[in-house]
Amino acid sequence: MSALVGVIMGSKSDWSTLSHTADMLEKLGIPHEVTVVSAHRTPDLLFQYAEQAEARGLRVIIAGAGGAAHLPGMCAAKTHLPVLGVPVQSSMLSGVDSLLSIVQMPAGVPVATLAIGKAGAVNAALLAASIIGHEFPEYHAALKQFRQEQTDTVLSNPDPREA
Ligand code: RP5
User: Fold this and answer.
1) What family does this chain come from, according to its entry (predicted)?
2) Which residue numbers belong to the known binding site for substrate?
């Protein structure tokens, strides 16, 4: 099956964060693709990617970037697909710069913004599963199973002194 979720990031240096998105999509069995697309280093590629995404069959785009993180917003400007933004933890400002760059979209062009770093990367995959789960019941079921496993893990070992 061709990719349903496109995972893009501004640099290869973002992969250590966005790999958590890919891992969770893999765990849920959701077909996805991963690509470096930089808003400032490869702007023409970004426009092409965003403009063609829907026709290529993507349902959701997850865009991760750090610092002056304009990738998710620019991507959202060129597609009607849902864009989920993952702020990458930057070395200078710990990702607060990335978060504020992504979250403060002016009214009219939304980016669904996740938490900084690994938590946001994982949750972006889970949110994508939620979104496409309406169309693909198998991914809705995979998401429900993941959530149940998470619950069972906590309930089966609630003693914080035990590993
Ligand atoms: C952003 O600049 C990228 O998303 C990355 O988080 C940050 C630094 O990129 P590199 O200089 O490591 O390539 O565009």
Assistant:
1) Belongs to the AIR carboxylase family. Class I subfamily.
2) 11, 14, 41
